[in-house]
Amino acid sequence: MGGNEFRFFLSCDINLPVTFRIERLEGKLPPPNPPNSDDVDFTSEERRPELYVECLLYIDGAPFGLPMRTRLESSGPSYCWNELITLNTKYRDLTANSQLAVTVYDVSSCKSDEVVGGATIHLFNMKKQLKTGKHKLRLWTGKEADGSINTTTPGKVPKEERGELERLEKLQNKYERGQIQR
C-alpha cells in the first residue's frame, strides 16, 4: 500500500463480532460503604476489593445483546484485566449512535455487587468513523453506566479538564494508528 493509498470498509459489510480490550483501572477507589449492624461477620480488617467490569452495548439508546463481564481482579491498584471482550453483536448491526456502557463492580461486600463507577463511550466519532486505539474513560463514581442518547455518564474527559498527559496520550494513539509520522 503506497503513501497516497487508503482503504475503507462500510460497517454494514463487516461480518465480525464487536471486539475490544479492557485493560486496567487506575486511580483510587471510593471508600467502602460502612457495614450495617446486621453484618455479624464483619471484622475490623480492611476488605480487599474484588472487581469485575460489565460491558453492555446500546444502539440508539436501547440495550442491545447480552452484557459481557471480565474475570474478577483483586491484585490491587492498578487493577489489570488486559482482557479481550467479544460481544455477540456484529459490526454490521451497529448504527452511528452505538455506545458501549462500562460499569465496574466490587463483589467483596457480603450483600450484593457494589457499583464502583461507570462510563459510556460512543463507538463512532463525529465523522461516523469507528473509533480505534486506546481510550481512557472517566468513571462516574457510584453510578452505573447508562447508554441513553444523552448519557449521564460520559466517558470522555472535557477539553478544559485535559492536561499535558492527555495531549501526549492522544498523539501516541494517532502514532500507533499510523495517522502521524514519527
UniProtKB/TrEMBL annotation:
Residues 157-171 have a biased composition (Basic and acidic residues). Gene3D superfamilies: C2 domain. This is Phosphatidylinositol 3-kinase, root isoform. PROSITE patterns: C2_PI3K. SUPFAM superfamilies: C2 domain (Calcium/lipid-binding domain, CaLB). Residues 14-178 form the C2 PI3K-type domain. CDD domains: C2_PI3K_class_III (cd08397). Residues 145-171 are annotated as: Disordered. InterPro entries: C2_domain_sf, PI3K-type_C2_dom. Belongs to the PI3/PI4-kinase family.
